[in-house]
Specification:
Length: 177
């Protein structure tokens, strides 16, 4: 495929995901207004700190999330958490590129169905299963410090479920307890 076609396809993917990216950009502006920072990595804009850190620390029943993707916008609590989660979040970017404006309703709908069935609405969500399978969060990954030295990351990611984990005839309805 020649270069011109790749550029057109890239712009079509950006347009296809733009309704979700705009939501992420709105959160990013709030982050910047409250002391957060922004950076461009791998064709996506990433925001961290400020309002974004506050918001992400309250997700997942108060356990907090390291990062979250909205289209081509990635929100992270800190630069270290963005570094650790970047590959995982870019799997979600590719999912947004496939699903476009339908990604958020599909993701939320999957989580809602899982929650009603008594399942883990985050770790058992098919979109998360794919992201953890293709790019698991690595608690041993190193974040370069300001001096260029590698420092271990301090927080641990949730343990991902594989599609085969805990699936049996007795568990098919996901009711726990």
């Amino acid at each position: 495929m020649n270069r011109n076609w790749r550029i057109w396809i890239r712009w079509l993917l950006v347009a296809w995901t733009s309704p979700n990216s705009v939501i992420g950009l709105a959160f990013g502006v709030l982050a910047l207004l409250t002391g957060g920072r922004a950076q461009i990595r791998r064709g996506c804009i990433e925001f961290h700190g400020g309002f974004v850190k506050w918001l992400l620390s309250r997700l997942l029943n108060g356990q907090g999330a390291a990062a979250m993707t909205l289209g081509h916008t990635i929100l992270g609590q800190t630069p270290a958490m963005l570094h650790r989660a970047r590959d995982h979040e870019h799997v979600h970017v590719r999912q947004y590129e496939r699903w476009g404006p339908f990604f958020l309703p599909a993701y939320i709908g999957s989580s809602l169905v899982l929650w009603i069935r008594g399942c883990d609405s985050y770790l058992e969500n098919p979109f998360e299963i794919e992201a953890y399978r293709l790019a698991p969060l690595n608690p041993q990954s190193q974040q370069p410090s300001a001096e260029g030295k590698s420092e271990p990351l301090k927080s641990q990611p949730p343990k991902p479920l594989s599609p085969e984990a805990n699936v049996s005839a007795d568990d098919s309805d996901c009711k726990r307890g």
